[in-house]
Amino acid sequence: MVIFLAYAVVFILFEDYDRKFIMPFNEVSDWHLLLFSLVVMAGLGFLLFHYAKRMDERISREQAEKESRIRRELTQNIAHELKTPVASILGYTDTILESPHITDEVKHQFIVRTNAQARRLTTLLHDISTLNRMDYAHDMITKERVNVAALVADIVQETTFELSRREMTLHNYLPQDIVVNGNYSLIYSIFRNLVDNAISHAGQGTVIEVGAQPQHDYWQFTFKDNGTGIAAEHLPRIFERFYRVDKGRSRDLGGTGLGLAIVKNAVLFHGGTISVSSPATGGLAFEFTLKRR
What we know:
Blueprint: H1 2-14, H2 28-98, H3 104-136, E1 144-147, H4 148-158, H5 160-165, E2 169-172, E3 179-182, H6 184-201, E4 207-214, E5 218-225, H7 247-252, H8 259-269, E6 274-277, E7 285-291
Parallel strand pairs: 2-4
Antiparallel strand pairs: 1-3, 4-5, 5-7, 6-7
Helix pairs in contact: 1-2, 2-3, 3-8, 4-6, 6-8
């Protein structure tokens, strides 16, 4: 279309390429040729407009279908994950209610197991709520100055018992002056989920290291362990919601399958990037960034 437009302008001004002055058209055929050029140009413009419109509609339709498929799969996964703890709670409570002659010891065991399943259900619902907030209500998430070093120190204290029980060591090498502008709850979720993931999957006697280096306008964090790690083919998918390398073992350990998805989305919410690798020395190494402001 641009070529035809340029040709028409040149033709109007000079009638031919070797003319040096603007002169009126002397031949009727010149007007016919000019009119033909303008009609072709208008036709091409019309076709391009409708082609672009159809492409936009196709892209929008495919995007809507993709989002619908993702929501449908997510709903199915949520229903599947909720089914197990709910079924366990109902099973234990029904047994207690329908068996009045069971011993107090057995009844206590069932209550303890019911409580554990209820806590797992609560954690799952909390994780789903956190992801929904980042997906659909990110404008309502407030930001403040967050002392990351103090936050991680608190997490170390909170997980001391579990780390000790598995003979694991967590080395916190974070500088004391790490402060970012972000949401405290989401930044807490990043580090807490990484620690919990390592405790659950890295293995007995593992050493965990957390460090950071300042860059121009962000902090570059590293979180790594020397544990069992995972096979390379699983690495591209570990941030997917409800993706588990070992589904049965993950559920037995109480995981919701959403921890690393929350980590990734929380990092992205704060304008950062995240990657994971499996070093030759073993274990997993996460690298991610958080903007200072």
